Amino acid sequence: MGGRTIQVSGFALTDSPEFVKDFLERISGPGTILALNLRPPKNISAASKAFAIVQFETQESASLVENAAQRKELRRGSFFLKVRPAERDIIPRPRVPMFCLEDADLHFGCLVKENETIGFYLSYNYKNYKLEISYDSRWEMQLHRPPAHRSRTKFLLIQVQTVPKIYESSSDLMSEDPSFSSLNYFRDDTDDQWNRTIDFTPSASIGNRLFCVWSCRNCAISQTLVSNFFYYKEYNLDFECQNGRSYSCGTGIVPIVKSPNNIDVPFEILFQINHLVQLGTLSGPTLDNNFFCLVSPKFVPADHIKRALFNMSDLKSACLNPTDWLSAEYSKICKLLYTLQISPHISPDDGLVYVHRVQVTPAKVYFYGPEINFSNRVVRHFSADIDNFLPVSFVDEDFEKLHSADLSSHSSSRTVARRTSLYYRVLQLQDNSTRMFASHQGLTVSDIRKWMGDFRNIRNVAKCAARLGQSFSSSTETLKVYKYEISADFAMEVAMKCKLKCFAPSVFQIRYGGYKGIVAVDPRSNWKLSLRKSMLKFQSENITLDVLACSKYQPCFLNRQLITLLSTLGVGDSVFELKQEEAVRQLNSMVTEPQAAIKAIKLIPMGEVTNVVKELLLCDYKPDHEPYLSMLLQTFRASKLLELKAKSRIFIPQGRAMMGCLDETRMLKYSQVFIQASYCADDHRKFIVTGKVAVARNPCLHPGDVRVLHAVDVPDLHHMFDCVFFPQQGPRPHSNECSGSDLDGEIYFVSWDQSLIPIRMVAPMDYTPAPTDTLDHDVKIEEVEEYFTNYIVNESLGIIANAHVVFADKEYLRAESAPCIQLAKLFSVAVDFPKTGLPAQISHELHVREYPDFMEKLDKATYVSNCVIRKLYREIKKHTPHIKYFTRNVARRSYDSDLIIDGYEDYITEATEFKQEYDFKLGNLMDHYGIKSEAEIISGCILKMARNLTKSSDADAIRMAVRSLRKEAMLWFSEVGMDENGIGQDDLDAKASAWYHVTYHPDYWGCYNKGYHRDRPHLISFPWCVYDRLVCIKQRRNLKRKMVLK
């Protein structure tokens, strides 16, 4: 903005803000003051004078007043006014209106045919409202200028992808604080003068519509658009807004459409139709009986309907004649040969299920799915009713988390959840999510809770709610075992069920009936499973052992919280800078040097494609030549650079991320740990760590969360690896000293890199949770629902964590400063909130007004930081990602004739159709999750996702969906075209060769997107689903060449 804020002293105590504003603007010019605070002195006497904090729009305006004071020309009566710089702005980031549309009406509507909308007039009811439309949410902007002889009114039409945020003017502000208007002046409305509100229009018009239409009689509207928006379409045709009626089947939660009573449309198809309506692809008023007949399995095969609706989601503009479009699409689908019998959905792998989900915003509802997700104990048992389970999350209009500051304590979310809320989990609670169930005759929510266990002895609402969610943890079902430390043989059986064929982990995080916690392998045990009494949380008759996670090789990374604490404890800035340089050097070398790439993916695995990448490198493919290999490695590098920039996530070779476990041998003494680690992901050789180690657990805000312990060799624990063992002895568990953890599957940062060992330690914080309220009756589900809404209103983890970053950056004592220590205590309270029901109360002095530049808070006031995080941030910004895409020219250069063998022509037709089907399913996944490049979704190194998703909660679902698609493609490869005599190895190689040819040959480049409204690149991962075949072909060709050379 370039503005400036000054303090002007010497005004009379009776002067008003308006007088002071007019007085100063005689010098600076009319309209130059943005805001003004008039303040009396602390001790008032007869000679006292008031002072004003004045924020000017420009530095020049402030300088005019400052210069007048220096020349003794700024005088109030006989008193010369004094001017000095103010400490901070009144409005940190003032927003100045870009333009104003006068004499204009605002309508909301739906497009039903080209150049025409159905509109609903806004009902203001004598109140002022503000609609905030995100720039990114604009889909299309149009200016309609009907011929002058027909109308002088112009229409500005904006199609939005998300509903505007709705604000109501704080009309009660002055009555609540009469001194406010007498002490302050604001030229423009500020953010704190608006309160969030819900849709106030008739029939919930804002939530129901995706078009905003301004009808304006101001002739300057076109000049306004040209000045402020580069991209808009202009039409000189007739345009009219007409009154219409709501197409939604209700006004409480909108928009939701249903089929006519006489036309049967299954839940899954109707769910997808609602999804398309809510995103604007389908226009609600155009859905008539003819349309619903075309989406009813009574008239059209269900798989044809699902495939067509998937294709419709690719459209870049609204489908205004859906009946004609569907008829044409069905004709295309019927021409398919091989894939006609294949479901348009990816076939989920074992242990995975399809789920629908809903997001509710203050003004609208969005349907998503079905999506592949991990199953849980309850869903597996009641699999026949899986469509009756519905995860629901409450988010803001831009799909960001609802902030407590925006919410009313009279939230109506409880009404939405009434009679359907089944549970929430602690992890989901932090995302404002719950799971609901639609009861029916034969199975109710109460029946499910009774099957889960007996919760009557839990008399605290928060704890009872957490226990209800225990059975819903995503898990892998293994074996049934009776209750009579886990034996080595049984551990191997469990590992096989978890698809870990090469080794049995040392530690499992489990759920078993009402038990939760971890169990460790004991080779001396004769019992299959032994459980501690402390693991029992409630009584349950379920005898299936469910595994949530297990110990394994996991690379170790620093992050901003750890760096801040280690820096506070004496680790020098140069240490972190050197570690980051080493990490960047490794990333740069892996995209050009084969051996560097092999070493890197061993230390930091790339997930599902690690083996593919390694085999291609071993086949003498160059990292910067083979397109598939190149794009995977370049995307991996780009994602790690992004993590370094956003999180300072620095790889530490001399360290691991390890699951914590208790030493059952009781050999470890206080301050000792046992660590045996694998060398890398695919190397089962191990080594024992001895000496000083730094141990911590994220999140960590208190300097005492970092513990310096001594790793020792304990022969009785040599069978345990890739986990850190803590002693049973001592005044306090070391695990609890690290952020208050309780050894329930938590992952610890463990490093034996001596340059990262702090030179001193601070006493750990007391993490004893606050006492909780105990009811005198069994917890009612209504009380759980009430608590859920209270949590949403009072949750403050993010606010506290961000404030800690700011104070640790500004304060001389860093994380040891008084504000940081207080924030660490508040953070602990906020972490326990889901279990205790006691929210953290943040005092006013701990709220922050400006943020360090490395936090990239673009909508907030910022300052240039000087801490180590800023140094790392500045350096990493010099490195930019470079990702090459598969163009036709790249296809010509990289097509490998080594992979083409005799007989491949016989499989071209089949390969082409399977390639199209694979691209269809992979492309749908990319579109659904908002992922732009194939390499991102295949590797799991996702750079950016759709706003309605989060990397933390959806990354596993994406990984599982891609794995399932790859497995399905392998089944196509091995089963289709096989007769009773099977198929020979040469034929399989020829088929693999055909898959490669129809993907890589330049003649096929781009052909799979023809006829579709798709804006996506040519996809090349298809043949690598059978990479083992292609690798064998390449190896034989390489060997043959070597033999010729000899």
TrEMBL record:
Function according to Swiss-Prot or TrEMBL: Probably involved in the RNA silencing pathway and required for the generation of small interfering RNAs (siRNAs).
Domain called RDRP C-terminal head: residue spans: 894-1042
Species assigned in the record: Panicum hallii var. hallii
PANTHER family associated with the record: RNA-DEPENDENT RNA POLYMERASE, RNA-DEPENDENT RNA POLYMERASE 1
UniProt domain RDR1/2-like RRM: residue ranges: 5-86
InterPro entries per the UniProt record, alphabetical: PH_RDR1/2-like (IPR057590), RDRP (IPR007855), RDRP_C_head (IPR058752), RDRP_core (IPR057596), RDRP_helical (IPR058751), RRM_RDR1/2-like (IPR058763)
An example molecular function term from Gene Ontology annotations: RNA binding
Family named by the database record: Belongs to the RdRP family.
Annotated catalysed reactions: RNA(n) + a ribonucleoside 5'-triphosphate = RNA(n+1) + diphosphate
Biological process per Gene Ontology, one example term: siRNA processing
Sorted UniProt keywords: Nucleotidyltransferase, RNA-binding, RNA-directed RNA polymerase, RNA-mediated gene silencing, Transferase
Domain RDRP helical as annotated: residue spans: 258-333
Domain RDR1/2-like PH-like: residue ranges: 111-238
Transmembrane feature ranges: none
Statement: the UniProt record of this protein carries the keyword ATP-binding: no
Superkingdom field: Eukaryota
RDRP core domain mapped to chain residues: 360-876
Protein name, entry field: RNA-dependent RNA polymerase
GO cellular component: nuclear RNA-directed RNA polymerase complex
Transcription regulation among keywords: no
EC number: 2.7.7.48
